[in-house]
Amino acid sequence: MLTQEKYVHSLKQIKEGEEKAWAEVQNFKKKVAEDIKSFQIDADKAIEAAKIQGEKLVETNIDQARKNAEIEVKKIIEEAKTKSKTISSQMDEKTIHGILDILLKGVE
After folding, report:
1. pLDDT tens string 30-71
2. C-alpha–C-alpha distance, residues 101 and 94, integer Å
3. Nearest 5°: CA angle at 66, between 73 and 85?
4. 64-75 core/surface letters (b: 16 or more CB in 10 A; e: else)
């Protein structure tokens, strides 16, 4: 009977070892699942922050491009005004010379 008791005792030890190993595996599995969930949450937050930062950067670049375009348009308008004054004064001189030529031809 001593051999049976040893055998039963060995079986109990094996069963306890299996249960302990099973519990450790379940705890590790639970920890891994929690870590994955935590990493997913952190990744989602990082993605959202990057998206917001990217949108702000795009908005800033659009505003800067708009300001640069407005500055360029103002320069072009000022150049056009200056050129139009120059052209109109040149045309007036040409017109005056043309008129004087016509008048002087009539006097000859």
Report:
1. 999 999 999 999 999 999 999 999 999 999 999 999 999 999
2. 10
3. 10
4. eeeeeeeeeeee
Record the tokens describing residue 45, joined without a space. 């937050």
Q: Check: pTM over 0.85? Answer yes or no.
A: no
Assigned token pair, 79: 């150049």
Domain boundaries, the chain: 21-108
CA–CA gap between residue 50 and residue 59 (Å, rounded): 14
How far is residue 21's CA from residue 2's CA, in Å, rounded to a whole number? 28
Residue type at position 61: N
Dist CA 107 CA 95 (whole Å): 18
Residue 1 is classified by DSSP as: -
